[in-house]
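Run: sequence + 1,3-dihydroxyacetonephosphate -> complex structure.
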Amino acid sequence: MISTALPIQNYALLDDDECDARIVAAKQKLGARCVILGHHYQRNEVFKHADFSGDSLKLSRNAAASEAEYIVFCGVHFMAEVADILSRPEQIAILPDMAAGCSMADMANVIKVNKCWQELSDLLDPDETVTPVTYINSAADLKAFCGDHGGIVCTSSNTQKVLEWSFSRREKVLFFPDQHLGRNTGYRMGIPLDEMVTWDFEQPLGGLTEAQIRQAKIILWKGFCSVHQMFKPEHIDRFLERYPETKVISHPEASFEVCEKSDYVGSTEYILKVVADAEPGTRWLVGTELNLVNRLNELTKDQGKNVHFMSPTVCMCSTMFRTDPQHLAWVMENLAAGHVVNRIQVPEKEAVLARKALDNMLSIH
Ligand code: 13P
Ligand code: SF4
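>> structure
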């Protein structure tokens, strides 16, 4: 047994094949004590080691159901926080690279959301009239804010159900941090665009008038995903001119205009399923992260399917990409040697409230 944790510096220069062999050996040694969860945006060299893969909802259910002592989350920070909150206290959630965050999640913080709530309190009683809904892509303290104010968490695969749940309790929704997911879903539910206002968190009263706030059904936080904003409606138009038979499928973090031009809109898991289940010989233009699209192309090309990435420029989620075989080998070999590195632990008080908002979501079928 090694007495102190192995440093990451020992791994930085290892090549991918060496890391691969070491990850496999450590995994074998740990057996059922360790589970690796992999989000669909992970690069292949990491993704192939995942025991379970999925979108945020599926992976949070995997984390909640896991019996493993260690949950190694190959994804981003908020996902490992959710794994910690939903697992039992003696289970340990690990994020291989602590710098793997989510730039969209960082666009909302609890100070600004509290300020917004306070400003809304001057006009209406938000605890009676507004359900706070946070996208799972948010820090644990924002989930705790929702738990504390009768709110709920959503993911890209259950937003409509979560909004229905919210409107059955209160007349309005404050939706953060992703404006696009909220707008795209609200519109598909029949809410007119002028009843979904955008809260600019840099402006007093979100840059809105009292009348706009009073008549709004959904107040959308002005956050967005830097990867999905790269997809433009003209990319779809140009592609369809060349291949008019193409089916277009996008993630709901893409803009309203892109989603309106898409035949299908849904979570990463949904995108994979729709294309995998499609007729052989079909052509697909996909508006989501590059690693997923490349893998989907590889998986379906034997069926004669053509899968294309929507943007002409390469755009990956750079924070998902932070998790590399070197970091995974480092955490796995440390676990096998009895050392926990990069533990994600949400403070107890915050975790209890965040769990309330997550349980509200998980209770919806
Ligand atoms: P999914 O829950 O659809 O996998 O989305 C997570 C995400 O971060 C998309 O950018
Ligand atoms: Fe966050 Fe966008 Fe990356 Fe998803 S793709 S993890 S929303 S930055």
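>> summary
The longest strand covers residues 34-39. The longest helix spans residues 16-30.
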